[in-house]
Amino acid sequence: MVYHIVMWNFKEEVKEQERAGLKREMATNLKALVGKVPGLLSVDFIENPVSSSTHDMALLTTFEKVEDIKNYAVHPQHVYVADTYVRPYTCGRACLDYEL
Predict the structure, then answer these.
(1) In the chain, where are the structural domains located?
(2) What pLDDT digit, counting tens, does each position of 68-89 carry?
(3) What is the mean pLDDT of the chain?
(4) In the predicted model, what is the mean pLDDT of residues 1-28?
(5) Largest Cα–Cα distance in the chain?
């Protein structure tokens, strides 16, 4: 099992009143990739981190094997979701991949 964790912050120009709705759209569309991207086993999206957190949101995904993360990164449906719902609004991306 391989775990892929990504965290982001919102860009400064994203208004506070828009953020909850944007997080819901990110969560819905990222979770919808399960069953569409080969090797992607699960997706969790953290919308409400506690106040001690350094990032506004996080994506927790599991894959069958390390190679699946590379395929996920370039899969057309993932690229569409990332380019439409995530990248236009986020910055400060941090990523950690590990295998258990």
Answers:
(1) 2-99
(2) 999 999 999 999 999 999 999 9
(3) 98
(4) 98
(5) 39
| Residue the block writes with tokens 């709705």 | 21
> To which residue do tokens 């990332």 refer?
82
Fold of 2-99: Alpha-Beta Plaits (3.30.70)
Handedness of CA 68, 84, 13, 44 (dihedral sign): negative
pLDDT for residue 25: 98
CA dist list (Å): 20 to 25, 41, 43, 93:
9, 26, 19, 18
Can you give the pLDDT at residue 63? 98
Share of the chain above pLDDT 70, in %: 100
Q: Which residue has the tokens 């990504």?
A: 6
Nearest to 23 by CA among 76, 75, 73, 59: 59
Contact between residue 16 and residue 66 where contact means Cβ atoms under 8 Å apart: no
Sign of torsion over alpha carbons 93, 73, 2, 50: positive
